[in-house]
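Pipeline run #58 for the internal structure catalog. This entry was flagged by the ingest filter as a single-chain record with no existing model, so it goes straight to prediction. Upstream metadata was stripped on purpose; only the residue string is passed forward. Reviewer on rotation: M.T. Logging verbosity set to normal.
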Amino acid sequence: MTQDDLLQFINQVVEEGWTELNLSEQNLSELPPEIGKLIQLEVLILGYGDDYFSASGNRIKKLPLEIVHLIHLKELCFIGNQLSVVPPEIIQLTQLQQLDLSANQISVLPPEIGQLVQLKKLK
């Protein structure tokens, strides 16, 4: 998916009021700041896996700060990307119940994150 395609898709998701969005396997290397428009989302999947393997991600290296605008987000699945840092601002997602960061390159989480969410996996 090209950035232009993604921007058009984000606008469509906003207009149609989606509450769940799966962007796995889209070969994304970054998320645009416009992701912050998706304030109605409750579930955002940017990579997924199961108990046997974790794949199907993208190549996203960082989360844009605009992700904190997703105030209704309950689940953020970021499996199989290239994330190395989790911004501490993610604590602003007070509805977040599940954060899955498996199969990324994270070595340290901000301490605020452990207080905010129940981590499913961290490898």
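catalog note: Residues 117-123 have pLDDT under 50 and may be disordered.
catalog note: The first strand starts at residue 20 and ends at 22.
status: ready for reviewer M.T.
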